Each structure stands twice: as C-alpha cells, then as structure tokens.
Amino acid sequence: MVTTEQDTAAVELRDVTKQFRPRSGQPVTAVDGLDLRIGRGEIVAVLGPNGAGKTTTLDMVLGLTDPTGGHLRVHGTGPRSAVAAGRVSAVLQTGGLLRDLSVRETVRLVASTFPQPAPVDDVLRQAGLQALASRRVSKCSGGEQQRLRFALALLPDPDLLVLDEPTAGMDVTARREFWDTMRKDARNGRTVVFATHYLDEADAFAERIVMMAHGHIVADGTTSEIRNRVSGRRVAADLPDSGADDALRRLPHVQHLRRERDRVTIHTTDSDAVARVLLSDLGARDVEITSRSLDDAFAALTEDRHGRAPADTDKADQLIEETAR
Ligand SMILES: Nc1ncnc2c1ncn2[C@@H]1O[C@H](COP(=O)(O)OP(=O)(O)OP(=O)(O)O)[C@@H](O)[C@H]1O
C-alpha cells in the first residue's frame, strides 16, 4: 500500500520515554512509554497535574529535547525537520519579546526571518491584534503579549500548532478572549495540541482530551467520552436481595455497580432511570443520589491517594470507585 501525505499522522509517539539524569540525585522518568497518535486537523488538550510530563512531551514534539527511547514522528519526519520546514510552531508560556518594539514591529521583525511568511496584517487580524498594532510590547497586558506570541507562531502558517499552557497567568476575560481567537483559527483545519491544567479550557476548546499523570496516559478520548466517564451521578440504595445486581449492571447508562452487604452503589449517567427501577421494580429503600464532580474524578484519574499514577485505564476507573467511596 502506498502511504500518502494524508495518511501520515500530525504527531506519532510510539513507546516514547524521556529520562532526565540530573548531576546529583536520582534519574527522573518524565515520560514513560508513551503511545499517542494525533491525526491532522485534531484539536487535542493534554491535561494533567504538575509534573505529569506534559511539557516534556510537547518539548519532544517541538524538537527542543530528544526522547531517551522510542519513536517520534511529526508529519512523518523528525521534529526538528518539521519545525525547520515551518510545519510546526509553538506558543510557549514564556519567551523573549522585545519590550521597546511595537506589536506590528515585532511581527514584522520575526516575519523577516521566514522565507515565506504569512502577511503581517493577516496575522495581526487572526490574533485579534489590529487595534493594538502600534502599542509597545511593554505596555501590553500579559494576555495581549500571549496573543502576540500566538501571532508570531502563525507566521509560518504551520500545519501543527503546539501551545504549552498558553493562558497561564491570564485572568478569566483574557483567557476567554484568547480561546475565542484560537477558535476562529481552528476552523482553518490546523492541528492544535495544547497543554493545560484547566478542565474547563479543555472541555470548551478541545475535541479530544489526553490525560497524563506521572509520565503515563491515564485517559484518552473525545471530550464527551471523558466527560461521561468521569461525570455522572452516584445512586446508593438499600437492596438486600442481590439477585438483580447483574440485571442492574446491564441497564443502559449504568457504568458500575458495587455492593457492600445490603447496600448497592451505582454510577450512572441517568440517575432518574436507575432510581425509578430501584424504587418501582425492586422495592429498594433509602435511595440517595449524589453528584460526582468532574474535578474530583479528574483528580482520581490523575493521582491516587498515595500520589501514584494509575498504570492503565482500568486502574483509573478503579480509582474513581475508590475515591467515590
Ligand atoms: N530538565 C529537567 N531535569 C530534571 N527533571 C526534569 C527536567 N524537566 C522536567 N523534569 C521533571 O520531569 C517531570 C515532568 O515534568 P514536566 O515539566 O514535563 O511536567 P508538566 O506536566 O509539564 O508539569 P507542569 O504542569 O508543572 O508544567 C517532573 O518530575 C519534572 O520535575
């Protein structure tokens, strides 16, 4: 079979590992056997707590650091060649901007370093910076400076845009404005991969969420799949007869059932339906419905009580159960 350009993933990591070996102290495994394929045009959020390995992963995709092991391709080639060809660019959390230049001068200056940059005015418009074009960088707010970094990243008109916590330190309004700008740009079919701590950002902007903890992927799915897995409600009831447990497990929308003596606890995305069956059909008593918060479940997915990562998805589910108890 002939592999076409279209078949090639935007990003492909196979069993990628990154170990840091500090001069003193133990080696740190920041990324541990990561398998990840991101198709062209996907918008993917990489979520995880501090130290999960998000930045290290994105740095490897950008060719800023090399993997210790495994296979990593960006648009079918090594990361550095992809960056050099202008196919990949990044908006990083920090990055030198010259304070005395205006916004337009900054974009013009950086544009002059590319062989075929996008027109400066187009880029200013895409980043929502037209009204600020003559403002000095030193007078721009943190959010505005971040939009300027975004404008610079658009200059090579990259196929893949990588953003590492692009809204860190912004207030709510600036964050909203930034994502509004990004949303407009995403309609152009660019692949966007961004790291964030904020579930709401991932939920609002990404189509797919990859959750990392301790260098592993602990969950990977569409935004709604992840939300369904980690959201929903807990219905608990007294039901001494365990004869209906299997039938309950098979009900649509039932994710999990646990029994402790006479009491069952069911995780479901349709608590009304489950409560109806329990009360009307099975004569259960003392039915109690409680919410499972997305944030709690996220914490359960990414870190267990002892600070260890769940090694696989089943374990992650188990941890949700444990946390829910
Ligand atoms: N240059 C380095 N030398 C040694 N250890 C490092 C280095 N860079 C990262 N690490 C370690 O690797 C692990 C993963 O770090 P990384 O920055 O990738 O996580 P992260 O998910 O991006 O975290 P954050 O959200 O805090 O930015 C951490 O334990 C970190 O301390």
UniProtKB/TrEMBL annotation:
Q: Give one Pfam family, short name only.
A: ABC_tran
Top-level taxonomic group: Bacteria
- Which InterPro entries does the annotation name? AAA+_ATPase, ABC_transporter-like_ATP-bd, ABC_transporter-like_CS, ABC_transporter_ATP-binding, P-loop_NTPase
Q: Where is the ABC transporter domain?
A: 11-239
Q: Where in the cell is it found?
A: Cell membrane
User: Which PROSITE patterns does the UniProt entry name for this protein?
Assistant: ABC_TRANSPORTER_1 (PS00211), ABC_TRANSPORTER_2 (PS50893)
List the Gene3D superfamilies hit by this protein, alphabetically.
P-loop containing nucleotide triphosphate hydrolases
Under Gene Ontology molecular function, one entry of this record is: ATP binding
Topological category with respect to the lipid bilayer? Peripheral membrane protein
Q: Does the keyword ATP-binding apply?
A: yes
For this UniProt record, give its keywords in alphabetical order, as a comma-separated list: Antibiotic resistance, ATP-binding, Nucleotide-binding, Transport
The segment annotated Disordered runs over 304-325
Q: In the UniProt record, does the keyword ATP-binding occur?
A: yes
Under PANTHER family, the record lists: ABC TRANSPORTER ATP-BINDING PROTEIN
**What is this protein called in UniProt?**
ABC transporter ATP-binding protein
Tell me what organism the protein belongs to: Georgenia deserti
